[in-house]
Amino acid sequence: MSSILIDTSASRKVKELLKFLLESGKIDAALTMRKIPESNSYDLGLITEASNLDEAVPIIPVMTVNAGQVLSSISTSRKKIAVVLKPCELRAFVELVKREQGSFENLLTISHTCGGVFPLDLVVAEDIEELLPKYEKIISKGEVPINTRDTCRACEHFIPMNADITVVVAGECEFGKGCVMYLNTDKAEEFTEGFTKERGELKFDPSVLKKTLDAHLVEKERLFASITEDGPGLDRLLDTFGKCVGCHGCNSVCPICYCLLCDFESANFDYNLPYFEEHLSRRGALRLPPDTIFFHLGRLTHMSFSCVGCGMCSDVCPVGIPVAAVFRKTGEKTAALFDYVPGRDVEESIPVMVYKEEELSDLG
């Protein structure tokens, strides 16, 4: 496989590639982050006209929605789409494809080494472009920005897996001043044919980012230590999730909450007067809304082993529950039992969907 040398900022080069793909008819649409000048805000845009790419900011450290979740709805279209994804978004989409809720067939996936994204409250309150120079300098030195999401700082999977095109924006180049675009698949070679003559035969070496990986692992230990296991299990659980107001925002933004009809959103969990009367007769008091702890336990047992640590759930929680940290820590322990990494390989079976008779031996 070949590589494309980037003589400008990586974000600008990706925009040029998307424009080339649209104008040449190789794709029908591009999915990428955009900046909306009128409101100084950002969104994830599906773009079909090359002229509208002026607003695109493909490698901005902002995640307003996990794009893997969005792709689940549009990837089965017959339209050819180039998608720019952060590594965790690509991994989330892989998990959805395994659950037959998406397809790679008509997609060209572009991802990049990731320094993490800013929390949404910071995106709303600050001018992100003023924060970028310092952010980029930190990334180029292999360090971890302190003002990104905590799960981003603790993420050791910041190098894309399974992308057709990988853009390295740190480690082997000075951020913003020319990097390398690696073509990992035959599809990438085919789509980029005619794009530029600035090609090489460079092969990406992940070891150049070892310093960055070590820094992320330190942050992961720090994050996991904050989710202590001191004290009785139920009391600790109540301390963590007792503030939940039952908004289900974490469920709504989670790319791995894959059920087409969530039981917690159904009539089974509507306010039920006989249920209330029974519990009131035994307890004398009842928390409203009810079953918030059960809601989080249900999600943990259902899909935590597929959590990609994007941090969207914690970012939208109105009462500051560290949902993402709990899911990440719990999911990693569960996945380790099966040597499973969420989103690592689209052909790798989800542990709960594999039956192995020997796993029942401990039950007698």
Briefly note the structural class of the backbone: alpha/beta
The proportion of residues in beta strands is 5-15%
Work out the radius of gyration: 22 Å
Shape: globular
Poorly predicted sequence stretches spanning 5 or more consecutive residues: none
Order of helices and strands: EHEEHEHEHHHEEHEHHHHHHH
Strand order of the largest sheet: 3-2-4-5-6-7-1-8
Strand count = 8
In the residues, how many domains can be counted?
2
Helical amount: 25-40%
Q: How confident overall, as mean pLDDT?
A: 87
Terminal residue distance: 51 Å
Largest sheet, in brief, is:
8 strands, mixed
Helical segment tally? 14
Keywords, separated by commas or semicolons:
eight-stranded mixed beta sheet; 38% helix; 364 residues; 14 helices; 2 domains; alpha/beta; 11% strand
Protein model, in words:
The chain has helices at residues 10-23, 67-74, 87-98, 120-125, 128-140, 150-153, 186-192, 210-226, 233-241, 249-253, 273-283, 292-303, 312-316, 323-336; strands at residues 3-5, 29-36, 41-47, 81-85, 107-112, 165-168, 180-183, 199-200. By secondary structure, the protein is α/β, with parallel strands linked by helices. The protein folds into 2 domains: 3-222; 231-363, no CATH class. Helix 2 crosses helix 3 (87-98). The radius of gyration is 22 Å and the shape is globular. 38% of the residues are buried.
